[in-house]
User: Fold this.
Amino acid sequence: MFAKPYSAEPLAREKDNTAESELFFRRALVLVFAVFVGLLAVASRLVYLQVLNHDRFTTLSDGNRIRVQPLPPTRGSIFDRNGVLLAENLASYHLEITREQAQDLDATLAELREHIELTDADIDRFRKMALRTPAYIGVPLRFRLTDEEIARLAIDLYRFPGVEIKADLTRRYPLGSLGVHAIGYVGRIDEGEMRRIDRGQYSGSTHIGKIGAEYSYEDLLRGRTGWQQVETNAEGRPLRVLSRTPPTPGQHLYLSIDIRLQAAAEKVLEGYNGALVAIDPRNGEILALVSQPTYDPNPFVNGIDFASYRELNTSKDKPLLNRALRGMYPPGSTIKPLMALTGLEHGVVNRHSGISCRGSYQLPGSSHRFRDWKRSGHGHVSMDRAIAQSCDVYFYDLALKLGIDRTHQFLDRFYLGRPTGVDLPGEKGGVLPSQDWKRQSYKKSWFAGDTLSAGIGQGYFLTTPLQLAHSTAAIAQRGVHFQPRILHASEDPSTRVKTLAEPLPLPPVKVRNPQFWETIIAGMVHVVEGGTANRIGIGAKYRIAGKTGTAQVFTLGQNQRYDAKRLARHLLDHALFVAFAPLEDPRIAVAVIAENGGGGSSTAAPMARKVMDAWLLNKYDVILEPLPAPGIAPHESE
Amino acid sequence: MNQNDEGWFLRLTRLDPPLLLGLLMVSGLGLTVLYSASQQNMDLVLGQGMRLGLGFVIMLALAQFPPRYFRFWSPWIYLVGLLLLLAVMAFGDISKGAQRWLDLGVVRFQPSEIMKLAVPMMMCWFFAEKPLPPRWLHLLGGVLITAIPFILIAEQPDLGTALVVGSAGAFALFLAGLSWVIILGLSLLLGATIPLFWTFVMHDYQRQRVLTFLDPETDPLGTGYHIIQSKIAIGSGGVYGKGWLNGTQSHLDFLPEGSTDFIFAAFLEEFGLVGGGLLLMLYFFIIARALYMASRAPDTYTRLLAGSLTLIFFLYAFVNTGMVSGLLPVVGLPLPLFSYGGTSLVTIMAGFGILMSIYSHRRTLTR
Assistant:
């Protein structure tokens, strides 16, 4: 109860029911009046529509009526950075039946079966669609007629009233599987997408970007749906067009990949499952994005048949998996330059301090031996030699001095353990472990041994090939880095005006002393010049900074030895290599992962060298072979 | 006052005969129109008939409870409603879109639907013991009671229901005697904020969306199509209409949602201005009678509640008829007792049940 200002008598006098009742009555009168006015307004509106404009609406309603028809736009084409066509729209033909005009549907279907191949699935789908479509609207029966089928049908078509060959546009990827993990594909709109999209905009459209650039740039590629008002007769058949707002065709896209480089990169990885990402460190543009094995996107456009899909989906090589963005691998020794940088930044080591490596490392008070890859040890190593020779013991020691949380904090700035924000769908973040992370994910506390494993890029540490390429590019630019991007430019198809995509800078990584960058880059140069990847340095026409890596697929027992010859292929180590070049003016950063490839220096490094040669020396030994066109000229977009 | 001025019907059933008659007439007319608008789909009409029957049973049942029960339960219903809304919000990510519904077997129910009754009940409970017109502090309490569920529902997003809930609170405030100065002040403030908001806060695409909302004919592939076709249906009906079962717009599928939100257009096409005028008069009669019944209520709680519930009914009727005739923007509110569908019907009939209870129990409350 609140204070009662006008009476000392408790409770009763605070509220004056009679006064309130009168107040309410007055308000109710006002409301009756308001309700009356509101309903009168509606009534006046009805007079306006039904009396004053009756004739106009009668004309619209009686005899002739207006329907609004959507005009779907032409989807933009996709090119590589040099204008090589990657995705286009082809005129294709399908067979359509208008039931109202067809005399005997069953007989027509039976006879058509003698002319062209019609599966039971085709007929089932046709009958289902027919149930939901008015009889005067055509229903497609068979898609993608071949030239031969068209020729055969054309002769006899007059005998089938209501059966027509109709043209439409089908998306086609002339280079087949080449670059599919970057380009993606379109497919028929499914029920889930139906709920998500703006149905007005998609009325009349049948396809939508499903994955890759086709998905992420759906809005640009699509254009805007136009519409026309059509006068129809009493049965709803169109008579004439009253007004027309033409559709706006979609933008053409120029991807940042160079399809020649992409082809070269796909070729070097052939025979392995794995991924390769090449980035221009100066702006974050992705020059090649490889995930092996690949697959042909063309069958997905009009619905891939069940058997083929099952085969792709259940294959143990997982061709549908985009390893470049979604494959998570331990970075292995490729993380060592960044570990060294973290150590320098936090002052736990300097570039002269060294340790003695005897082939293994033991935590105080523990008998567990953390092995170095070189059983005999590296002897006395400083930072430069530790990177060049990839000494594990040096980095065990460094990691322990840093502790996992400081490592986590610093490496997080390179977008390890979180998505880089690339403009392709489905990117994974990987794992950059920390004490908190382990507590949350495993409900276990962090052990010193975990820190050692993380220090050489093993244990819980997981990265995507894209993250490795990105962090290497960031080293090349001394901490200046950009969001990785697949879009190079877009082009308005009518005005031919090209808009270049602006680089998207990320918060730069600053260190106490810029010389720290030079220290770790020197180590990376010595990897290629005399270090673990000495072989690829030989004969190079430019200088490379790189780092090899080997990621364990399974853990050896304490006294076992890794013997590649006696292990099954799927248990072999993953081979990794990251590099940038030319040293003086970095124009390309590459990360390669060859699953079960054995060693980083023997398998992965030569792959990266070939890709860098192709890009920097313009040395391509691949010939692009477009798929044979189905005999019909490409459709010219407006 | 003696018992003799009440008829035997009211004493027996606790239902007010004039109001009941008005509701029955609108419902009967609604079913007739639905038969035509649904392309003579008897299953659909029977289903709607069952729902209406259920609605009347709920009204009859609620009319038997003395109003003190509603008053006692008001805060609890409100709290449960709020918790359900929060639950919807918490699990909203997993269950997108249509899964705001709870399936109770016979009818499907949205938690936000409860709030259409719970908010006015809570408001009236809150103001019942406060001196009226409300003081500033009490006013603030009332605003909070309304604003919290309003925001939760608008976030879902379900603007139609949020509008009803927000208005219900505003109606209660108005009936509680909110001073005209404040009403005028708030209107001016709102009027002044909108242009600022428009210029400085909203993005281009948001402005575009609002413009389409206000003038749907600029978007002929979306909501604009409904309005264009609805106006053709209404206008071509003329003074006397095309006759029952003769509406071409609705029968040739030109009129979208012809048996749900846009049933008013199907009705006007077939029954013309004469039919439309009759229906509007029926609605006016129901509302006026209900407000009269509210003014006879014995205490603050019952008076405010009866008035607010009546105004919710008016809101439905006005917003729907205004929308269908192109007078108001498109807001998905059904035409009460007319549109096909059950959820809002149950709410409205429950509201009338409470109103009937208040009217028929008014003597037992006076001391």
Q: What stands out?
A: The longest strand of chain B covers residues 102-103. The radius of gyration of chain B is 21 Å. Chain B is about 70% helix and 0% strand.
